[in-house]
Design brief:
Layout (H helix, E strand, L loop, with lengths): L17 H8 L5 H7 L7 E6 L2 E6 L11 H11 L3 H37 L11 E5 L10 E3 L10 E3 L2 H6 L3 E3 L5 E4 L12 E3 L1 E8 L2 E9 L6 E8 L8 E6 L8 E5 L13 E5 L2 E6 L4 E4 L12 E4 L7 H6 L3 E8 L2 E8 L5 H4 L13 E4 L5 H4 L3 E9 L1 H7 L9 H6 L8 E10 L1
Parallel strand pairs: 5-8
Antiparallel strand pairs: 1-2, 3-22, 4-9, 6-7, 7-22, 9-21, 10-18, 10-22, 11-12, 11-21, 12-13, 13-17, 14-15, 16-17, 18-19, 19-20
Length: about 425
């Protein structure tokens, strides 16, 4: 057997230049090389690539040509392994193949980019700049020049007695904490006899708005058996002027429901993640959103107050789950193209919101999007006031109480003040941008 000259093996591809010199610099296999090859002997040949074509290259040569140095032997063997005819014949082929591969890769990349862009560019009609027009915080909510304290019987037939501002303050149902957080509460101290209404608070902004960006930061929200809270906006002559329920639920729900109420002739498309919209009378692209469409007919009346609803699955959006993480932000954008709503948990609030310089284009897909495809937004929504309330039982609480997991009846729950321990809004601020 011929004596073989050992060559170091680094598992590298071999080209003219530095990597070849590195290979020639070693005379014995390295430890890592032996581990890779599961052997203490270096491999006899290596597959390498040059101009897109693979070749086997000897890593040792017989000592039958002792007059040649090791480096010269290796260089000779390397050149012999790459016949010029083969290189010339393969060059054209591989250049075309490379171009085809690059073209396919480029088309695939563009396709993926388009799909990603469609899914993440957010709703239409977003302005480049939003200006702060109203900021409500702290004692602003206790100012009768800015907010009305509703005292009429509850239109949704709840078992509540809404309080005037002086009465709410006197009963400690409306106050500002030392840290500036505004609290609006349900009475959680008084045991009640049957058929007695419990004291609560409902406030409505003096000012009304036509379109805009509305951002509400809540530290906590009401929840509990029989409790039906809502943060919403509403126009005149309900339901003609429209209603947007941004944050609403009942009892011990753990997810939020977004709902619109309108007059006749307003619907939203079925399905979720791609509601189309209209521009100049023509349907345009869909808008992806995170929550799930539950009902599609927005038209409401005294006989059917369901509205069109999109429901969350994120348990941080409502009730106890919302409160445990110090609440968060609800932002809704209302323009002629539709109504978009975002929810941000406390540790996910965008910096631009905190800086009072909101940039909805950077927020990604909304939680819900109500399209103008089957609903003339400008016709069905106008002159909206802002509303925060907590009612009890009523049109939503009574029929859902039996399936809520709460004990007894809704009427019995009203009597026990312990059920209202967590029936409190804690408001950091509400900001309106246009």
């Amino acid at each position: 057997m011929h004596q073989r000259t050992k060559w170091g093996w680094h598992g590298q591809r071999f080209y003219f230049g530095k990597r070849v010199r590195l290979l020639l610099a070693d005379s014995t296999p390295t430890k890592s090389a032996c581990l890779r090859n599961q052997s203490s002997n270096p491999p006899s040949t290596s597959w390498t690539s040059y101009l897109g074509r693979s070749f086997q290259v000897p890593l040792y040569l017989p000592s039958i040509l002792p007059q040649y140095s090791d480096k010269m032997l290796f260089a000779a063997s390397f050149l012999l392994a790459l016949p010029l005819v083969a290189l010339a014949g393969s060059l054209n082929h591989n250049l075309h193949a490379a171009r085809r591969s690059k073209s396919r890769h480029s088309l695939l990349s563009r396709s993926r980019y388009r799909n990603q862009t469609l899914q993440n560019r957010g709703p239409p009609g977003i302005q480049s700049k939003y200006n702060l027009v109203d900021l409500y915080q702290g004692k602003d909510f206790l100012n009768e020049t800015q907010w009305d304290y509703f005292t009429a019987p509850d239109p949704t037939h709840g078992t509540v007695q809404y309080q005037s501002l002086p009465d709410a303050v006197a009963k400690k149902l409306a106050f500002v904490q030392d840290d500036g957080t505004t609290v609006l509460a349900v009475d959680d101290q008084t045991p009640l006899p049957p058929n007695k209404n419990r004291d609560s608070v409902r406030i409505t902004s003096k000012k009304s708005y036509n379109q805009g960006l509305f951002i509400a930061d809540f530290f906590a929200m009401p929840h509990g058996c029989s409790v039906w809270p809502a943060w919403w906006t509403v126009g005149p002559n309900w339901p003609t002027g429209g209603e947007i329920d941004v944050l609403e639920g009942v009892h011990n729900s753990n997810t939020n429901a977004y709902t619109l109420h309108t007059g006749q002739g307003c619907e939203i498309p079925a399905g979720n993640g791609g509601s189309p919209l209209k521009r100049n009378g023509h349907s345009k692209r869909g808008v992806a959103f995170e929550a799930t469409v539950k009902t599609t007919n927005c038209a409401s009346s005294g006989n059917d107050n369901t509205g069109c609803g999109i429901h969350e699955s994120d348990t941080r959006t409502y009730g106890e789950g919302f409160n445990r993480i110090a609440g968060g932000v609800y932002a809704h954008l209302w323009n002629s193209d539709g109504i978009s709503i975002w929810h941000f948990a406390r540790d996910e609030i965008p910096a631009d919101i905190s800086a009072k310089n909101p940039d909805p284009k950077s927020w990604g897909n909304p939680s819900a999007f109500f399209s103008n495809e089957k609903c003339d937004i400008d016709k069905h929504f106008h002159d909206h006031s802002l509303v925060i309330d907590t009612t009890i039982c009523g049109d939503l609480g009574n029929p859902t109480y039996g399936s809520s997991g709460c004990p007894g009846t809704c009427a019995e729950a009203v009597q026990d003040p312990a059920n209202f321990r967590f029936a409190k809004w804690k408001i950091n601020y509400i900001a309106v941008y246009q």
